[in-house]
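User: My advisor asked me to double-check a structure prediction for MBL fold metallo-hydrolase before group meeting. I don't want to rely on an old file, so could you generate it fresh from this sequence?
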Amino acid sequence: MSEDKPWPDTIRAGECEQHEPLVRRVLAPNPSPYTFTGTQTWIVGAGSDVAVIDPGPTGSGMSIGDPPDANGTGHVDAILRATQGQRVAAILCTHTHRDHSPAAAPLQAATGAPIIGCAPLALTDDGPRADSAFDPDYAPDHVLADGERVAGDGWTLEAVATPGHTSNHLCFALVESGALFTGDHVMAWSTSVVSPPDGDMAAYMASLSKLYERSDRVYYPAHGPAVTKPRQLVRGMLGHRRQRERQILRELEKGAAVIPVMVGHMYKGLDPRLTGAAGRSVLAHLLDLKARGLVRAHEEQWELA
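Assistant: Sure, here is a fresh prediction for MBL fold metallo-hydrolase from the sequence you gave:
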């Protein structure tokens, strides 16, 4: 999709849209302040078989229960319609938040395809989640290592390890076209939430730098429009995170502070529904700064070291 195409007025949940010869997209019906228009399931392949990336949510992973899509049925049915006449050869998940991986199991039951990609992860977080927490039932048949490939009729996907948003996050590079499926690691509509204890700011920054050194032509994220100038966006995201870090240090130069107060000063005009997520990202920055010996914590207060 071109970045100058109207967004999101032209898209509807459940409809299959062609983005390039080997890439189609089906939007899940789970819009929210955290998922934008919903989770995007990517279908790779134009021949006898295909791969499905991020099959999406079911049930509690939907923002409003389990609503029907534009054609009156569920998201798994929409994927099956989009792949009719082709064999689903692989179901790949970038990570295991509940808006990404739960539909892998029913899709596997319907197609017999193996679930591969990221490692399983089930954590109990101690703060508000931006994407409905983790999928405890995710059970992959095979976990892809960084650089490992899976291939089908005319397509090859290579795993690119990108921890940070979650410790198990993977991107997938489509070798034949130069596209990169970035999950929640890089999105054009919003920065990714990095929420401890599993989210790690140092790892996230390292993963951004890793992508900056690549030469991918286009990014297809799990939420929001395609990114047609990937390195420019990643450079901006690295700068944005460094700016947030400097903001935090300036806040603490005024004296010890708690996270909610810092969020109020740093995120002017923020949607109140997003304050919890902002606080988690501030915490991730603080933990990184603490590991580098720049700040310290006393109970819930933070101060310069």
